[in-house]
Amino acid sequence: MLKVRKSQERGYADHGWLRSFHSFSFAGYYDPAFMGFGNLRVINEDRVAAGAGFGTHGHRDMEIISYVLSGELAHKDSMGNIESIPPGDVQRMSAGRGVMHSEFNHKADETTHFLQIWIEPKERGIAPGYEQKQFSDAEKRGTLRLVASPDGHDGSVTVNADARLFAGLFDGNETASLALDPQRKSYVHLVRGELEVNGQKLVGGDAAMLEGESQLTLGAGIDAEVLVFDLAA
Q: 168 and 225 in contact (C-beta within 8 Å)?
């Protein structure tokens, strides 16, 4: 079964300094039909205005991934990490038994556009942790590059979750396939462009939710950037 959710069906909030699309219920957006998918809890597509950001706040027992699309995101946390996250980097923060952090766009004239992703942890109460790695466009071109996994396979960041995350770039006749476990769930989020997912056309911001499927096939891309989640049911 494959179900498409269109970009415009997502929740939306405009706070002036922050414009955010919510794939699942979050903050002031609530839809009981979209509380998450498998152990994927949040995908927020955020645009943070120049000179603005999220002040220091806390998290616990959640795997949080930041995926920057344009601009840069400054990160500071109670573990002592002070980092800048550019496009192409994947940042993983394991909130564990508790962490405080802030995120900021220090650019004076550029919006930071990024995805904030939350995945339910497989173990609770662990020590908080942090990891950040760069994945070049060449690594993602015409293929699905593993960027996050439970065991850090193939140089991916390690998540305390029963989930894998792939990223890919597709244009023209580039195609890729991924074998799926029909007992698990898969979630495809098209970041930008156009792409066919198992024959269904998606445009930027659209998502495809797959259950009981054994194969994922991507193709007919037009300047497409995509994230694919392999998730616990």
A: yes
Q: DSSP code of 150?
A: T
* Phi, psi dihedrals of residue 65, rounded to the nearest 5°: -115, 130
Return the structure tokens found at 74.
């400054």
**pLDDT for 39-60, tens place per residue?**
999 999 999 999 999 999 999 9
Residues contacting residue 171 through CB under 8 Å, at least 6 positions apart: 193, 221, 222, 223, 224
Token digits for 162?
Answer: 């029963």
Query: Are the CB atoms for 36 and 229 separated by under 8 Å?
Result: no
pTM: predicted TM-score of the whole model, two decimal places = 0.97
Q: Give ∠ CA 208-160-47 in degrees, rounded to 5.
A: 50
DSSP state, residue 31? -
